[in-house]
């Protein structure tokens, strides 16, 4: 019997999640498109954000929406919040990216790559920080004067076997 309790699953709205993520993606895409527009030489002016690099806004919006919808849909179908939901969402986002590139290998590679990356990230707890404040194991030393760790000292002693006369 494990000491950890299973977290309670809360049903999410796939359409609501997709809309929120697509809106956020569109906002980020607008900023990226504005930066792209400012770095290019053209005669479109400020409207170049939409006319020349507006595809970036659509791409960010579609990728965010596809990820959020697939993530919420998979979670609701399975009744669990775990890494498989992130993997399904990452695969959906990869399908959108690969479709924009118009390449079947890119579709498959993006699906597998983003699915694996986002699934692993979500399985690890959605963070790259040590939120549980996990502490490393204390350093053990057999010989206080030796700078090597105890496990390293033991491994070294087993490898370099000493005769009885050398030990005394």
Automatic annotation (TrEMBL):
InterPro entries in UniProt: NDUFA11
Main location: mitochondrion
Keyword annotations: Membrane, Mitochondrion, Mitochondrion inner membrane, Transmembrane, Transmembrane helix
Domain of life the protein comes from: Eukaryota
Region ranges (Disordered): 140-168
Gene Ontology, cellular component aspect: mitochondrial inner membrane; respiratory chain complex I
Presence of keyword Transmembrane helix: yes
Protein name: NADH dehydrogenase [ubiquinone] 1 alpha subcomplex subunit 11
Lineage: Eukaryota, Fungi, Dikarya, Basidiomycota, Ustilaginomycotina
């Amino acid at each position: 019997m494990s000491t950890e309790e299973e977290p309670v699953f809360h049903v999410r709205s796939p359409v609501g999640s997709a809309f929120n993520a697509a809106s956020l993606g569109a906002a980020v895409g607008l900023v990226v498109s504005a930066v792209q527009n400012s770095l290019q030489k053209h005669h479109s002016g400020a409207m170049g954000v939409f006319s020349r690099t507006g595809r970036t806004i659509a791409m960010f919006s579609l990728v965010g929406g596809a990820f959020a919808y697939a993530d919420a849909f998979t979670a609701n179908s399975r009744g669990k919040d775990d890494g498989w939901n992130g993997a399904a969402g990452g695969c959906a986002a990869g399908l959108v990216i690969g479709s924009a590139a118009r390449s079947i290998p890119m579709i498959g590679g993006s699906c597998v790559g983003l699915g694996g990356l986002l699934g692993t990230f979500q399985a690890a707890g959605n963070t790259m920080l040590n939120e549980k404040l996990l502490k490393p194991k204390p350093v053990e030393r057999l010989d206080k004067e030796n700078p090597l760790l105890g496990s390293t000292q033991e491994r070294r002693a087993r490898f370099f076997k000493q005769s009885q006369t050398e030990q005394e």
